[in-house]
Amino acid sequence: MRIGLYPGTFDPLTLGHRDIITRATQLVDRLVIGVAINRDKGPLFSLEERVAMIEAEVADLSARSGVEIVAHPFENLLIDCARDVGAQIIIRGLRAVTDFEYEFQMVGMNRAMDDSIETVFLMAEARHQAIASKLVKEIARLEGDVSKFVSPAIQSALSRKFAQRP
Q: Omega before 7 cis (within 30°)?
């Protein structure tokens, strides 16, 4: 069984993330979406909320593709998370050249720690390449339309979250 790990904070899950997840299902039999617990980033959504949103957003895709897709919170090194879930492949999404520089360094470090785990880069479709969770949150905070960037369910979650804030 080929197991892939797609890590990120997913705060929130965007259509760009969804695009990478969809295409990753063509490469693996089981896809683990590693939901990073990154206290330094100060996520808008709690870990539990992010995991629940991911599970809801990928349920139909898992059923259609026949690929098991699971959300897995992690706070350790990415390479250790990959080992923990039995992943042979780490899947990373790229949007722009600036992403590549950071990812290139990360691959080198991960390979030095465990060269049995391969990293695969997937480019988001052109219409999704500019989408960044940080920008989506800013647009939603300022009551802008984020419907081109997230699913209706996540758009509603963003609206609810910002309505609760002072």
A: no
Number of structural domains in the chain: 1
Model-wide pTM > 0.85:
yes
Q: How far, in Å, CA of 99 to CA of 84, rounded?
A: 26
Phi/psi at 77 (nearest 5 deg)? -60, 145
- Over residues 133-163, the pLDDT tens digits come to 999 999 999 999 999 999 999 999 999 999 8
Catalytic residue numbers, as ranges? 17, 41, 95, 133
Omega within 30 of 0 (cis) for the link into 166:
no
Domain that holds residue 104: 3-126
CB neighbour list of residue 60: distance below 8 Å, 6 or more residues apart = none
CATH of the domain at 7: 3.40.50.620
**36 phi and psi angles, rounded to 5 deg:** -70, 135
